[in-house]
Design brief:
The chain is an alpha/beta fold. It is 48% helix and 12% strand. It has a seven-stranded mixed β-sheet with strand order 1-2-9-6-5-3-4, with helices on both faces. A hairpin with a 4-residue loop joins strand 7 and strand 8. Helix 6 packs parallel to helix 8, helix 9 runs antiparallel to helix 10 and helix 11 packs across helix 12. The longest helix has 23 residues. The chain starts with 9 loop residues before the first strand and ends with a helix. The mean pLDDT is 96. The structure holds fe (ii) ion. The site of fe (ii) ion has 5 residues, from helix 6 and helix 10.
C-alpha cells in the first residue's frame, strides 16, 4: 500500500537538506560537521525529555564526540519568555548553532532564538502581518530541525510562531532565512506519540494541505504538493493512530507534514484563522482546533471551490465518478468520517471552549492574516458563524 521505503535513508535537497528514513537520526553528527557547528544548543521541551527522545539524540551526539548544550524548557505554544531564556543560555554557553528537537513548539522557539542572536528585539518588529520580514537579514547561525511529531512541518518551513505580549496573539514571523539548514526526519522518533496527539498533529498537516489547495492564490507547485499530502493523510492517519508502531504509516504522515508546510507558502484559510485564536483564548491544541473547525469551514467554502473540493475527494480515494458538486460534498463527508475514526471530538464545547468566548474568538480570528486567502471572503460575522457551527 505504501510507496515509502522504510528500510533505507533518503537524502533530498528540496526545499532544504532533508535526511529521511528510519534511522536517519544517525546522520545528525554529519550535518553538525557539514554546518561547522562546534557547540550547538539542543532546544527541546519536557514532553520530549519524558518520552526519552532527548536522551536518544544526546546519545548520538556524545558517541560522535560532538560538544553541545541543552535548553529543555520550551513551553507548549511558546512565548517570548521561552525564546529569551533559550537565547540567554545560548549566549552564556557560547554556542554557535541550534539543534531543534520536538513538535512545533521547540522548533519554532529555536527558530526565534536563532533570529534574536543577530537581530534586535522585540520580536513583534518581525511580525509577518506587518511586513516584518523586510528586517530579517541573512546572518543567522545554522539550525538543524528534528521533528518528533508529524504535524506542523516547521522543519521545512520559513516561519516561526510564538505568542507575543505586544500583539496578544499567536504571531507568525516569516523569512526565507528561517528555513532550517537541515531537517532530519526519522519516523522512528514518532513511534511513541500517543493516538490523541498523532490524530491532532496529523490533522494539522491535513488542514495545511487542504486549506492551501483550496486557497485563492495561484501556486500550481504548492497545489501539486498539497494534493499528494491529502492522499497520504487519507490513507495513513487512521493506521498511525491505531498502531503507533506502523512505520509505513508513520513515514507517510511525516512526508505529509513536510508537504503541508511546503504547500502553505501559497496561503491558508479561515480554519487556521480560527485555530490561531482558539489556542491562546481557550487553550485548545492547534491541530485539534483545526480538526474540529475544518468541516464547518469546508461547508462554508463549498460553493466557492467546488472543483477543487472534487479533486480532494478523488485524492482521498473517491472513485465514484460522480458530478463535481456531489464529489465536493463527498470530500467534506470523508473529512468528517476521518475525524470520527481517529477520535476527534465533534465540537468545540467538548474541548472546553466556552460559548461566551466565541465573539472574542471571532474578533481575534478576523485580525489573523490567514483568512485573507480563504476561497470565500470572510467577515467577522462569518467567522463567528463558523465558530458557532463548530461549537
Ligand atoms: Fe497549522
Amino acid at each position: 500500500m505504501m510507496d515509502i521505503p522504510t528500510d533505507r535513508i533518503s537524502e533530498m535537497s528540496y526545499p532544504t537538506r532533508v535526511s529521511f528514513g528510519v534511522g536517519a537520526l544517525a546522520r545528525l553528527p554529519a550535518h553538525v560537521e557539514r554546518l561547522k557547528m562546534k557547540k550547538p544548543l539542543l532546544v527541546t521541551d519536557q514532553g520530549v525529555v519524558k518520552a526519552g527522545l532527548l536522551e536518544k539524540v544526546a546519545g548520538v551526539l556524545k558517541q560522535a564526540g560532538v560538544t553541545f548544550d541543552v535548553f529543555d524548557q520550551v513551553e507548549p505554544n511558546p512565548t517570548e519568555k521561552d525564546v529569551f531564556a533559550g537565547l540567554d543560555r545560548w549566549r552564556a554557553q557560547k554556542c554557535d548553532g541550534f539543534i531543534a528537537l520536538g513538535g512545533g513548539s521547540p522548533l519554532d522557539a529555536a527558530k526565534l532564538m536563532q533570529l534574536l542572536t543577530t537581530h534586535e528585539p522585540p520580536l513583534s518588529r518581525y511580525d509577518d502581518a506587518k511586513g516584518g520580514d523586510r528586517y530579517v537579514q541573512d546572518n543567522l547561525p545554522p539550525l538543524i530541525a528534528i521533528p518528533t511529531t508529524a504535524g506542523t512541518g516547521s522543519e521545512v518551513s520559513r516561519s516561526g510562531v510564538a505568542t507575543l505580549q505586544d500583539t496578544g496573539r499567536k504571531t507568525v514571523i516569516f523569512s526565507p532565512y528561517l528555513m532550517p539548514r537541515a531537517a532530519i526526519c526519522d519516523p522512528q522518533l514518532t513511534v511513541g506519540l500517543p493516538p490523541r496527539t498523532t490524530a491532532a498533529t496529523g490533522m494539522d498537516a491535513f488542514t495545511h494541505c487542504i486549506e492551501s489547495f483550496i486557497s485563492n492564490g495561484f501556486h500550481p507547485l504548492a497545489d501539486a504538493v498539497a494534493i499528494d499530502g491529502i492522499s497520504r493523510v487519507a490513507r495513513s492517519l487512521e493506521a498511525a493512530c491505531a498502531n503507533g508502531e506502523d512505520l509505513g504509516a508513520r513515514a507517510d504522515m511525516m512526508v505529509a507534514a513536510m508537504e503541508g508546510a511546503m504547500a502553505f507558502q501559497k496561503g491558508l484559510g479561515a480554519c487556521h484563522a480560527l485555530a490561531h485564536a482558539l489556542t491562546p483564548i481557550s487553550g485548545v491544541h492547534h491541530g485539534l482546533a483545526n480538526a474540529i473547525c475544518l468541516p464547518a469551514v469546508l461547508e462554508f467554502n463549498r460553493a466557492s471551490c467546488t472543483a477543487r473540493l472534487a479533486r480532494v475527494a478523488v485524492a482521498m480515494g473517491d472513485n465514484s465518478l460522480a458530478r463535481q458538486e456531489v464529489l465536493a460534498g463527498n470530500a467534506i463527508e470523508r473529512v468528517r468520517k476521518m475525524n470520527s475514526k481517529i477520535g476527534i471530538p465533534g465540537g468545540l464545547r467538548e474541548v472546553g471552549v466556552k460559548e461566551i468566548d466565541l465573539p472574542k474568538i471571532a474578533a481575534k480570528a478576523f485580525e489573523d492574516a490567514s483568512h485573507q486567502t480563504n476561497p470565500r471572503k470572510c467577515s467577522e460575522e462569518d467567522l463567528l458563524a463558523l465558530a458557532r457551527a463548530a461549537f
